[in-house]
Structures are given as structure tokens and as C-alpha cells.
Amino acid sequence: MTEIFGIPLQAFLSQLLLGLVNGSFYAMLSLGLAVIFGLLNIVNFAHGTFYMMGAFGAWLLLQYLGLNYWFALILSPIAVGLLGVLVEKSMLRWLYKLDHLYGLLLTFGLALVLEGLFRQQFGVSGQPYQVPDLLRGATNLGFMILPNYRAWVVVASLVVCFATWYVIERTKLGAYLRAGTENPALTQAFGVNVPRMVTLTYAFGVALAGFAGVLASPIIQVNPLMGNNIIIVVFAVVVIGGMGSILGSILTGLSLGVIEGLTKVFYPEASSTVVFVIMAIVLLVRPAGLFGKEK
Q1: What is the tens place of the pLDDT at every residue in 124-150?
Q2: Domain limits at 77?
Q3: Cα separation of the two ends of the chain
């Protein structure tokens, strides 16, 4: 049997795939954070909670309405996005001219409230969610067995992430978004409804988190604490990539997921800290992050 550094090839590739799957979630969640911070200057600490609510949305749609995974993949992110509209209009829009700390504290408090409501209603035990029939099973590639659902997660995440990057960086809509952030008065003078654009930007950012939650629901059990388990790592990803950098968040999220997966193969004891070690090194060498702009 072929080995890499004493590790069987199939075990090595399986762990690499697991790292790529985790990296896909890191990329999508950090992308949402980067969109919100880069365009609205809000540190959205409630992002993990919106991720959890996306997963619960899928579970509730199946349990109470009988709507399967494919409906949930559309409806749950929309519902999370609508909640984001409510949050932005009722709370966040009063904070845009204040220090970043106020937005962080508000979204942190919001996360605690929403998580508490879900814990009271559903407890902390996980709720199982079945893999959709179309994506069950695995494909034998010869050198490894590839689970179909995990392959779907990677592909769907990459498509959504790079489509978002293209819209923001390469289209007229993205130009309006960036202009509305840098000079809202001038952008408004050209007939662009900046307040509505800001609201929709925040809604889209949290809808990305909801979409990631739906993708995660068949892999990990749906529970109110699932956002806490990933959001700290995602914030580290955003810091390493550069606060507000769209492409930086995507590439860094994918890379760190793979690095974390390989660390589990060669030095398992460091797998839970390797991301933070990398963050510390990057901040020492380049405080603005790998893709961030130095001020």
C-alpha cells in the first residue's frame, strides 16, 4: 500500500478531503464576515448564530412542513436574510458612524439572546438531519472513496464564494456597493438608494451564513451551540486573510482548512491550535493580514 511520510495514502487523502470540507465552511462564513465588515464596517459577532439558525431552519422545514433539503437550501438562507434586514434596520443602522466596538458588542449581545432562545426551546442535544437521497453514498476513485455529499459541499461552497467575489469586485453592482461605503453622499447624489443597498448587503452576508448552516446540517448534528464551535476559527481566518478582503477570506479559509486537516494527520495534538499559531505569526509579520491593505 502506498504511503506518504508513513501514512497510508487513503487515510492521508481522506483527512485532506475533511480539511477541504472544513475549509469550505471557513471560506463561506469568513466571506460573509468580510462582506459585512468591508462594506459596512460592522464586526458581526452574531455570524455564528445566523449559521446555526440556517441549520435549524432546514431541520424545522423538514420536521414541521415536510420540505426536503433542496427547498431548505433556498428557503432557510432567505429567512435568515430577512432576519438580517430586521436587525440592520432596527439596530445596526444607528451604529455606522460610531466605533467598531459598539457594533461588536451589539452583535455579541444579540448572539447570546438568540442562542439562549434556541437552547431553551430545543436544548443542547443535537438534532439529526439526513443526507438527501440524491447525494447519498460514495464514489470509488480508485485511490480513495469519495463521499458524494462532502464533494457536493466543496463544489457548492466554491461556486457561491467565487460568484460572490466576482459580483463585488468585477460588476457595476459591486462598484456601487464599494462607492456607497466610501462616499455615501456622493453615491446617493447619483440616484443610488444607499440605505437600501446597505440593508441588502447585511442581509446577503448573514444569508451566506445561513446557507453554510444548511450545508453543514447533514454533516454535524443541528444544535444551538454549533455556531460557537466554528465562529472563533472563522474570525481568525478573517484576520489572517485581512479584515474586509473578499478574496483573502476565501483563499485563507480553504487553505487553513487543508492545513488543519493535514495537521491532524502528522501532529494531531496541534490541530486545534494551528490556525491561531498561524494568526499570531501573520499578525507579527503583516498586521493588516495577508491580503489586507496597510494603512
Answers
A1: 888 999 999 999 999 887 767 888 999
A2: 27-285
A3: 52
Angle at 137 between CA 131 and CA 142, to 5 degrees: 145
Q: Is residue 6 in a domain?
A: no
Number of domains composing the chain: 1
Q: Enumerate long-range contacts of 153-162, CB under 8 Å, 24 or more apart.
A: 153/21, 153/24, 153/25, 153/215, 153/219, 154/20, 154/21, 154/24, 156/215, 157/24, 157/25, 157/27, 157/28, 157/212, 157/215, 158/24, 160/28, 160/208, 160/211, 161/27, 161/28, 161/31, 161/250, 162/250
- Alpha-carbon distance 209 to 202, whole Å? 11
Tell how far CA 242 is from the center of its chain. Answer: 15
Q: Would you say residue 187 lies in a domain?
A: yes
* d(C-alpha 12, C-alpha 222), whole Å: 28
Residue range 200-230, pLDDT digits in tens: 989 999 999 999 999 999 998 899 999 987 8
Q: Is 81 within a domain?
A: yes
Best CA proximity match to 247, nearest among 161, 177, 184: 161
Q: What is the pTM of this model?
A: 0.93
Return d(Cα 275, Cα 237) in angstroms, integer.
Answer: 8
Q: Is 27 exposed, middle or buried (0-12, 13-18, 19+ CB in 10 A)?
A: buried
Residues 6 or more apart from 146 whose CB is under 8 A from it? 17, 138, 139, 140
φ/ψ of residue 6, rounded to 5: 85, 0
Closest CA to 51 of 88, 26, 85: 26
* Residue 12: inside a domain: no
Which of 50, 54, 48, 46 lies closest to 211, judged by CA?
54
140 CB-contact burial (10 Å; exposed 0-12 / middle 13-18 / buried 19+): exposed
195 in helix, strand or coil?
helix
